[in-house]
Design a protein that fits this description.
Layout: E1 7-9, E2 13-22, E3 25-30, E4 39-43, E5 47-51, E6 57-61, E7 81-86, E8 93-101, E9 104-113, E10 122-131, E11 139-144, E12 150-154, E13 173-177, E14 194-197, E15 205-208, E16 213-218, E17 225-230, E18 234-235, E19 246-250, E20 256-261, E21 275-279, E22 294-301, E23 304-314, E24 322-328, E25 331-336, E26 350-357
Parallel strand pairs: 14-18
Antiparallel strand pairs: 1-23, 2-26, 3-4, 4-5, 5-6, 7-8, 8-9, 9-10, 11-12, 12-13, 13-14, 15-16, 16-17, 17-19, 20-21, 21-22, 22-23, 24-25, 25-26
Length: 370
């Protein structure tokens, strides 16, 4: 199977290949520049790429890591450049990543400005000094809320899960800050960046326009991966509880990563305001898996989840790992971390795909469902 035919998609939709040959593409963000690139992609091992509207790929920023990754996935090779967001007002690109200081890993957020959106002209660190680990549970998603503030997902640091509950520690939290890194005057706790606590490994985040709320994915310890709506000053229970405050959870590990809402009619009225979640699945398993390697669709109601459906499912014989996900004006974009590359990360081969409605809005998707 070729790259596109390796994926089954919900009837009435089709998948298109947008970019290939990427080096572990993690997250994808829409650019918001009418005359600039179409989107940006964070590559785990130190670059941010751009993709133009005619699907040309270039490098926006590189050399972002001050250490050499060891490429072991899962494990210590999970560290690098992860979260990605674009300020809709200025077009500035914000990225989260790890860095070394005194031989120890820390988390930071960098804001990058560009005149044309094709090359970073300036870089400013707006958050740093947060202890981290190479093994996972590090700094993750970045989102800009309807209030114009930056929200930052931080894992618990892996080796110190108790940090997620400590008010004097930023790990295991969702942070809220101004775009220059300062503390907003109206944060839940005066003088603190902490917006909510009690998270283990909150990889993904997305805002829902209909209720002006932030939703996150959080990975459990071999069970109870979850989706939660984040409330100011909320405590989401970890450790040890991975169900407190959850909107939905999986009994078995699925590895939920990025998520997004269809809100501008890209998928028609039927799926408007539905939540789409990438489930990465096992990192080293080839071929389809009953645990992840798919994107699922959730219809939300006032009391919870009304329906749950597979929307995109890997049906090929490679590694495949859907990780990043974002909605643009013309459809849903998602990244395949491995693509035709290798699990150890030394060989580029990751892809970016776009899911759009089929002509007429009906008909079979590409690929075969196992």
């Amino acid at each position: 199977m070729d790259a596109v035919d390796s994926w089954w998609v919900f009837p009435g939709f089709r998948i298109e290949l947008v970019a290939t040959g990427l080096h572990k593409p993690v997250n994808v963000a829409i650019s918001h520049r009418p005359n600039g690139p179409m989107l940006y992609v964070s590559e785990l091992y130190g670059r941010i790429r751009y993709v133009t509207r005619d699907c040309q790929v270039g490098t926006f920023a590189e050399g972002l890591l001050n250490y050499e990754p060891d490429y072991v996935l899962p494990g210590s090779g999970e560290s690098g450049v992860t979260g990605l967001s674009v300020d809709p007002a200025s077009g500035d690109v914000l990225a989260s990543m790890l860095y070394l200081d005194g031989g120890k890993p820390f988390s930071k957020v960098v804001r990058m400005s560009s005149a044309d959106g094709l090359k970073a002209d300036t870089m400013e660190v707006i958050l740093d000094g947060i202890p981290s680990t190479f093994n996972a549970h590090q700094i993750q998603a970045l989102t800009i809320g309807p209030d114009g503030k930056l929200y930052v997902n931080l894992g618990d640091g892996y080796h110190e899960p108790e940090a997620a509950r400590r008010d004097d520690d930023l790990r295991g939290k969702v942070l809220r800050m101004n775009l220059d890194g300062s503390v907003p005057d109206d944060n839940p706790v005066d003088g603190s960046l902490v917006y909510a606590k009690g998270f283990r490994n909150p990889f993904g985040a997305a805002w829902r326009r209909s209720d002006r709320s932030l939703y996150i994915s959080d990975n459990g310890r071999q069970s109870y991966d979850r989706i939660a709506r984040v409330e100011p000053n909320g405590d989401y229970g970890w450790p040890p509880d991975m169900r407190r405050g959850s909107l939905f959870w999986w009994t078995f590990t699925q590895a939920p990563t990025a998520l997004g809402f269809a809100e501008d009619g890209q998928f028609g009225e039927r799926f408007n305001d539905h939540l789409f979640v990438a489930l990465a699945g096992p990192a080293r398993y080839k071929a389809p898996s009953m645990k992840g390697k798919k994107i699922v669709k959730l219809e939300l109601g006032s009391e919870g989840v009304l329906s749950y459906d597979d929307f995109v499912v890997y049906a090929g014989d490679g590694l495949a790992m859907p990780v990043g996900l974002a909605f643009g004006p013309d459809g849903m974009y998602f990244t395949d971390l491995h693509g035709e590359g290798d699990v150890y990360g030394k060989k580029p081969g990751g892809n970016v795909f776009r899911v759009v409605r089929s002509e007429g809005g009906e008909g079979p998707g590409k690929g075969l469902l196992y």
